[in-house]
Amino acid sequence: MQIKIDDKTFEPYLLKSKIEARVAAIGQQIKIDYKDKQPVFLGVLSGSFFFMADLLKQTALDVEISFVKLASYEGVRSSGKMELQLSIHTDLKNRDVIIVEDIVDTGHTLKCLLDLIYQEKPASVRVCSLLYKPAACQVQFDELHYIGFEIPNEFVLGYGLDYNDKGRNLRDIYRLASI
Ligand code: 5GP
Description:
It is globular, with a radius of gyration of 16 Å. It has a single domain (3-176), classed as 3-Layer(aba) Sandwich (Rossmann fold). The protein is α/β, with parallel strands linked by helices. It has a six-stranded mixed sheet with strand order 5-4-3-6-7-8, sandwiched between helices. A four-stranded antiparallel sheet has the order 1-2-10-9. 22% of the residues lie in helices and 38% in strands. The structure holds guanosine-5'-monophosphate. Residues 47, 72-73, 78, 102-110, 155-157, 161-163 line the site of guanosine-5'-monophosphate (5GP).
């Protein structure tokens, strides 16, 4: 069923059951990959909070959790400007860091965040992003290790992702309707 948020109409795209299955699979993989380690999960606010919570339920590792906020987006178009709104409080030195992102679009946000994180001298850094838009991404990331879904260059919302700060609480992911 289509939904309307402000001036835009959205249609269902990735349903809850499909997201849940994929998040569970990624969580299990991380559990195996970090079996003998104590990684720090670094969630990028605000979009990653659903994903982060569901992922952490799967991993059952001895983990630490922290959040950062970087803003680069207004409405449905990337502004290109970057602002650090919350700093990293956890000590990342010699730690295995897993950055949890909602979506990698142009890649500018992630590039900026990685630059900041490497200054903290972590032992390793991997990125886990629920969504990835390969056609939009302008940066090559060796760290982008776990990807939920590769999607076309379309605007999506739901499951943590917003449009004008609305729609984050939707359980399914929607995309702009093609009508
Ligand atoms: P990037 O810097 O990779 O272009 O953009 C990253 C940020 O832009 C994401 O963390 C997210 O907040 C926002 N963003 C990019 N694409 C979308 C999209 O399709 N839907 C929503 N809701 N936000 C997006």
